[in-house]
């Protein structure tokens, strides 16, 4: 199962995480209102680390996203707001990084509304709905995902912690398209600072 650790912004904490845990992806949040917002200076330091970086964007312009891809050597972008199909299509044409399209889950998922994105994205990412866009620390009702109708792989996110490991594995065994998990606030000492011991345990047992 692939592992994305999101919301890193401290270069030393990020380096220790890469060296000790070797996640598949590290998420850098370029949304100024997030308590995990990474400034350009820290992102530049993190750029040198040997891990694939995912830029997380909320209501960002195409110009900003493309600029950050080049500036910080991003390997993927996570579109975390209501980006239109046309926006995603244009992004796909202008860059060759992976595209993760987030769907925030409240009570239901409208599978039909996801369909037009299929040809221009690499992964869907399901997160728990919150007015703050992400980092809610809460899980959603994963039963909904048992009806997942596409072949496109997806990542599970939203409030994942050590206490969810058994349930995550059970879900993974039922849905072949579930490619991995995205962890964040349940592994923090403070916003943006990860507890590497907790993440190691998660990595070992997942
Ligand atoms: O984490 C944030 O502060 C955040 C804010 C705005 C948009 C996205 C954000 N996080 C992106 C992620 O991919 C998180 O890992 C995801 O929302 C799950 O977070 P959590 O519920 O804390 O596990």
UniProtKB/TrEMBL annotation:
- Annotated catalysed reactions: N-(5-phospho-beta-D-ribosyl)anthranilate = 1-(2-carboxyphenylamino)-1-deoxy-D-ribulose 5-phosphate
The pathway entry for this protein reads as: Amino-acid biosynthesis; L-tryptophan biosynthesis; L-tryptophan from chorismate: step 3/5
A Pfam family of this chain: PRAI
**So what EC number does this one have?**
5.3.1.24
Coiled-coil positions:
none
Domain of life, per lineage: Bacteria
Q: Which InterPro entries match?
A: Aldolase_TIM, PRAI_dom, RibuloseP-bd_barrel, TrpF_fam
GO BP term, pick one: L-tryptophan biosynthetic process
Which Gene Ontology molecular function entries are recorded, alphabetically?
Answer: phosphoribosylanthranilate isomerase activity
The protein's UniProt keywords, in alphabetical order, are: Amino-acid biosynthesis, Aromatic amino acid biosynthesis, Isomerase, Tryptophan biosynthesis
Q: Which residues form the N-(5'phosphoribosyl) anthranilate isomerase (PRAI) domain?
A: 4-202
State the similarity comment: Belongs to the TrpF family.
**Protein name per the record:** N-(5'-phosphoribosyl)anthranilate isomerase
Q: Write the lineage as a comma-separated list.
A: Bacteria, Pseudomonadati, Bacteroidota, Cytophagia, Cytophagales
């Amino acid at each position: 199962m692939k592992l994305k650790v999101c919301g890193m912004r401290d270069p030393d904490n990020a380096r220790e995480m890469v060296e000790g845990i070797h996640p598949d992806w590290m998420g850098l949040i370029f949304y100024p209102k997030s308590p995990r917002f990474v400034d350009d200076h820290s992102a530049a330091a993190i750029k040198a680390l040997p891990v694939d970086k995912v830029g997380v964007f909320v209501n960002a312009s195409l110009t900003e996203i493309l600029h950050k891809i080049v500036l910080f050597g991003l390997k993927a972008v996570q579109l975390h707001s209501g980006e239109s199909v046309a926006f995603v299509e244009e992004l796909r044409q202008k860059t060759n990084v992976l595209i993760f399209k987030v769907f925030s889950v409240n009570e239901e998922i409208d599978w039909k509304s996801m369909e037009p994105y299929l040809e221009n994205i690499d992964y869907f990412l399901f997160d728990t709905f919150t007015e703050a866009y992400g980092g809610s620390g809460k899980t959603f009702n994963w039963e909904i995902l048992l009806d997942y109708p596409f072949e496109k792989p997806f990542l599970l996110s939203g409030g994942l912690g050590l206490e969810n490991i058994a349930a995550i594995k059970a879900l993974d065994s039922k849905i072949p398209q579930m490619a991995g998990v995205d962890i964040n606030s349940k592994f923090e000492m403070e916003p943006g600072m990860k507890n590497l011991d907790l993440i190691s345990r998660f990595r070992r047992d997942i």
